[in-house]
User: Which sequence fits this backbone?
């Protein structure tokens, strides 16, 4: 398999995501513990690696996850409404005794990892305790949208999971819906409108219903969006 170099996702006007650069594509489920709290990602499928491919953005393709041209038939309006402000400009800062948590709420779609071992905000406030600090870091790092970033207290440097550049289709079994497209490892995301800030974790809409396009806002839940392919 060729290494994903010069990887990029281009948001076409009222059309699909055009993925280039030999980016691996797979599907993962959000797995929960006995109490129903999201705690892990479980890979359920790998797709053939291709140098380039087009992923459905409108939610209507009959060949999901790939685009089949349905956006043209349905008159899909893919207008981007998300801010292009930097993460730092959007994020609130929560100071704990052993950890700093940054929280850019606008990226949230409700994945739920932030509540696994006690809410990440409460854990940050208790981060003078090593166990609470470690749990807060774990929960922040599992946030697929990158809303949450745990930072070292002294250096203020973000603590990020090591992610290879790849594209993952997320499934949310506990909500009985298919979730967003998870862009991992700092993939460039751009359109005619702008170039978005490159981040290690980003989630973009694939149901076509988000009010924060191109990013996912959780609208797939209310829409009952399912990808059975």
Assistant:
């Amino acid at each position: 398999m060729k290494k994903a170099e010069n990887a990029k996702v281009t948001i076409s006007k009222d059309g699909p995501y055009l993925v280039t650069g030999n980016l691996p594509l797979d599907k993962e489920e959000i797995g929960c513990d006995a109490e129903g709290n999201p705690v892990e990602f479980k890979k359920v499928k790998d797709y053939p690696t291709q140098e380039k491919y087009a992923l459905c953005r409108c939610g209507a393709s009959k060949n999901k996850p790939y685009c089949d041209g349905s956006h043209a038939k349905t008159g899909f309006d893919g207008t981007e409404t998300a801010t292009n402000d930097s993460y730092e400009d959007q994020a609130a800062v929560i100071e704990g005794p052993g950890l700093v948590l940054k929280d850019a709420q606008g990226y949230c779609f409700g994945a739920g990892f932030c509540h696994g071992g006690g809410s990440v905000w409460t854990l940050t406030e208790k981060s003078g305790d090593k166990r609470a600090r470690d749990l807060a870091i774990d929960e922040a790092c599992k946030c697929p949208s990158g809303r949450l970033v745990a930072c070292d207290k002294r250096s203020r440097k973000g603590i990020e999971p090591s992610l290879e550049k790849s594209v993952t289709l997320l499934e949310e079994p506990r909500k009985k819906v298919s979730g967003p497209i998870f862009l991992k490892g700092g993939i460039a995301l751009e359109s005619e409108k702008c170039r978005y800030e490159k981040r290690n974790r980003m989630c973009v809409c694939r149901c076509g219903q988000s009010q924060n396009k191109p990013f996912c806002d959780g609208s797939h839940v209310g829409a009952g969006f399912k990808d059975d392919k």
Observations:
- Residues 107 and 225 are 19 Å apart (CA to CA).
- The chain has two domains: 8-81+168-223, 87-159.
